[in-house]
Design brief:
Elements: E1 8-12, H1 17-29, E2 34-36, H2 47-59, E3 65-70, H3 74-80, E4 88-90, H4 94-104, E5 108-112, H5 118-130, H6 137-143
Parallel strand pairs: 1-2, 1-3, 3-5, 4-5
Length: 154
């Protein structure tokens, strides 16, 4: 994982807090600045609250990437993807991490604490953060994800 100036935003619900904490520690150990949006305990919380905070930080350019963790990663990805300019993906492998960055310019990685082992998550996050977006033929497809509404300029 290559350290960057812009922080990585991270968040989790109660099901993902332990994995989030270990990811935060790994990111910091690799030299990444991290902005932790919580949660910080195992008491029941609502995952969309954390997904929205992380997604907003990424969309505003306050964070280079986002990392979200819940039981499956699915709820977090659904909530984060409600934000324009966010391409949140649930990852289960390094191959998915590399391809979604290279082809889709994904900017939020979501993980399931109950579905994916911590070693796979760490490897996938490393691949996600170090794989560049290829652009080229993929750029027109990514541009179609959030088309400009009729009557408005891009």
């Amino acid at each position: 994982m290559n350290p960057a100036e812009t922080p990585i935003a991270i968040g989790a619900d109660h099901a993902g807090v332990a994995l989030k904490d270990s990811l935060r520690a790994a990111l910091k150990a690799a030299g990444h600045p991290v902005r932790d949006f919580g949660t910080h305990g195992d008491g029941s919380v609502d995952y969309p609250d954390f997904a929205h905070q992380v997604a907003q930080a990424v969309a505003k350019g306050e964070a280079a990437f986002g990392v979200l963790v819940c039981g499956t990663g699915i709820g977090m990805s659904i909530a984060a993807n409600r934000h324009p300019d966010i391409r949140a993906v649930v990852l289960h492998s390094t191959t998915e991490a590399r391809l979604t960055r290279a082809h889709n310019n994904a900017n939020v990685a979501c993980f399931g604490a109950r579905t994916t082992g911590p070693e796979v998550v760490l490897d996938s996050l490393s691949a996600f953060l170090t794989t560049p977006y290829e652009g080229g033929r993929h750029a027109r497809r990514v541009a179609k994800i959030n088309p400009t509404p009729a009557g408005q300029e891009a």
